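User: Run a structure prediction on this.
Assistant: Running it now.
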Amino acid sequence: MAPGLDWPRPALSPIVAGLSPDAQRRAISEACQTIGAVPEGDAHTSVRQTSIGVKLCRTDGTANWLKISEKGGLREQWRRQGERLAQAVEGISQPRILRELEWSLEGSELHAFVYSLAPSPSGQTTPWISSAMPAIGDDWLRELGSVFARLAAEPLSRWLIHPGPIARIIAERFGRKAPYDIAEWRMAHGDLNWSNVTAPTLSLLDWEFYGAAPRGYDAAMLLLFSARDPELYRRMEAAFADDLNTSSGIAARLYLIARSLDNIERGNGDPRRHAPLEREAKRLLRM
């Protein structure tokens, strides 16, 4: 299958937030009426198929981004709280939350964030590299490294993942002698993939999973989603080696690889990635 054709970002999915595609369009229309805007371009379902997103044009000519999701319960509220908490982190480029909306439509309780628009488009429409990449220069990588350093300075305010699941998942996949101890914890974006970073101007999107994770977690995740571009993979591994090659960083990498292998084996990932991920895990286990 040609690059860009496999695992495409979906258009409006059959059901998002309890709404059919027609109802999703009505939800966008109602939100636009409330804030005085019109949608610009096509609306899309998020990669996880939990929200609807569309670019907006306000009556004053400014562009914003609208993200609609189900109001939901504790899990959905936890994710939205991550986005709100991340707004307080200084020195990191991210869209600003301008407004929140809540309303009912066809029996669904909806929530929407209205954001400022990111300075550049997402690096990819999928989490992994599936089409031509924008140029990722050394300055871009250095700026991303500064983001990691800035997050590392933040006090630990909530957990993304606990030590127990990390140890269990690594042991189940790679054996009980595989390294799993996490000595260093840092605040992390928590979902750093190529659809959540912009290029050529760097900004980080969708902070739903903002929380404490092993040192190197964000770098390990973005590295994992870069496997289809060996040269970029090599450059990123070198750029973030100080985090990735710590004991905590290696455990984070093994944990993320184990999760990816599990997803592929359940039919929720590209099977062509299975063998390269296994080879990478074997290399890490020898470090």
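The first helix runs from residue 21 to 35.
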